[in-house]
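User:
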Amino acid sequence: MKSIYDTRRFNAQLLSQYCGSMAAFSERIGRAQTQVSRLIGKNPTRNIGDKLARHLESCFCLPAYWLDRQHHHDLDSIDASLQNFLLNQNKFQELHAFMETIREAIDAGEIDEVIFTQLEEIAKKLKNS
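Assistant: Predicted structure:
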């Protein structure tokens, strides 16, 4: 039976292949290529721990503990699965940009009572849906 570290490594290797290269993967997860090579390269010397596993999932907008379960056997089977998650990632990036605009407006004192009330109503609707 595979260990959780073997499963994480296999899934991370598929994600790396999906990115097109180890360089693209390392850039996406914000880690040096040498560190990535030690984790998922041809002769890995380090395991993917809990904290890093959750970080990888976050970088790909995957649900928590996704990396811990065997989902796919090859790159073709992961492609369709990731498409839904990547759509969520695009929405996440747009939402992040919206939130940054709101934060900048707050810092500049541009959020008045009316805008604040509108934002509050949106947040309440999201919470109740």
